[in-house]
Amino acid sequence: MIVDKKSRLFLAAFIAFLGIMFTPNAVLGSGHDSKTEEKAAHADQSADNHHANGAQDHDVSTAANQAEGSEAHSADHGSEKFDAGKVIMDHVTNSHGWHIAGDLELPLPVIIYNKTQKKWQVFSSSKFEHGHAAYLGFTAHQGKLTSTTNEEFMDFSLTKNGFSMFIGAALLLIVLLSVARNYKKRGVKSPKGIASFIEPLILFLRDDVIKPGIGKGYEKFLPYLLTLFFFIFFNNLLGLIPIFPGGANLTGSVAITGILALITFIIVTVNGSKDYWMHIIWPPGIPFGLKFLLIPIEIFGMFLKPVVLMIRLFANITAGHIIILGFFSLIFIFSEINEWIGSGVTVFSVAFSIFMSMLELLVAFLQAYVFTLLSSLYIGGARETHEHEESH
Amino acid sequence: MGLLESNWGLPFWMLITFGLVVFVLSKYAWKPILKSLREREDVIDGAILQAEETKLEMEKLKSQNKDLLKEARGERDRILKDAKSTGEKMIAEAKKNASIEGQKVMEQAKAEIEQQTAQAMTELKKEVSSLSISMAEKIIGKKFEDPKEQSIYIEQRLKDLETMPSASKN
User: Which residues from chain B sit within 8 angstroms of residue A224, using beta carbons?
Assistant: First the structure.
């Protein structure tokens, strides 16, 4: 169940990503937080420099030459070689500030509960100076705080993903409340404006997903499941926008999908009928000996369902982000070898990125749909009461 | 931070935000939206049902109308036929009456004429006889001394005239 089609795509992407990371051309660099745009400039400039100086042959093929070239342009620009792995990880993971373009970064609040000192510490993420500086004994690297003085702490910061979630939630509220207003105003007349876009989705979810999934008494779960769908859908779409208000990999972070799966798990558990629990604790219609084999499997399955929900959404969305970033990284990797190859690869990369973006639009809807569908199936399964003995 | 790691902040903010979003949306968005969707469905169902009922009623009315029309037509035909026969009867009667009346008038006229003619004849005879007498007197130059005798004579002559063939009539 876990290894569905998209997960396989994710695996493929992951392998490609590993390949990129360990390519001899892309030497793993350390530290600096510079972004793809800068890198493009650097790569091109370095190529130009090499050309102009005539110091180095263009067709560098050996690792030694690569290293030398790397040193040469490091000296010129104070920067390292392009590191695709780091760039991709910077983009798909959380961070304490929101990098917008160049040196422009939206500072976000860092909130720390210091267990050692037993106090709250709140300050702006700009104090970290793009990850270069330590502040109050903390450093930030790829969204992870480290205490330089080995203090115990809990990081409650409103990070990039958290802020993106606020934007997504605000958008969700604006859109859906205006839709609701439209209904209040127009009564039973046909929907107009944005409501005519949202209404088919609501009807589809209500009539084809939630109603057949849960069955009788489905109305009680409509608000949660509809919110679930639109929350995932909106944030998926927001994540596909490459510039500032979007681009955060929110629905591709385990914390978000984990909380959503946890809520579904709680609803399923709370609404579990006697039959549901009996199936887990004492599976009916099975030989006595087998029961002891099945009980742990059933209990494991009970927890596996939400975990699957969590991983599916996280893996799909992260995979999409990684693949698109991977295609863009190819441009810079090849540009470091040769500017002509680089520009040739650009065409290929852009074409594939567009293709992937289209696919991701579909995935954005599909994953929101799948999450809602499975949630309602799990809830429906837990509420079901049946007489049958053998059809387990 | 790895892909499978998270700080405490994100799930914490997520729980708060998502909880709020679910609360606000279920109260201010899903409730009115789902309510008006249901209402609209009810209205549409009702309208379809009503349309069907109206159709049935229309058909009923149509057949009723047909019957009425048929009845009306029959009535009309009957009335027309009645009127026609009455008219014919009236005309026939009128004709009969008229002819009877005409005959009566004619007969009356005839009788009167005859009567008048007879009267005129008598008068004429009287006149003629007195004239002839006076003429005869003049011719004869003799007067009957006795008027009694004279009138007997005249009577006799008149009788002779009457017995004469009807040459004097025309």
Answer: 22, 26
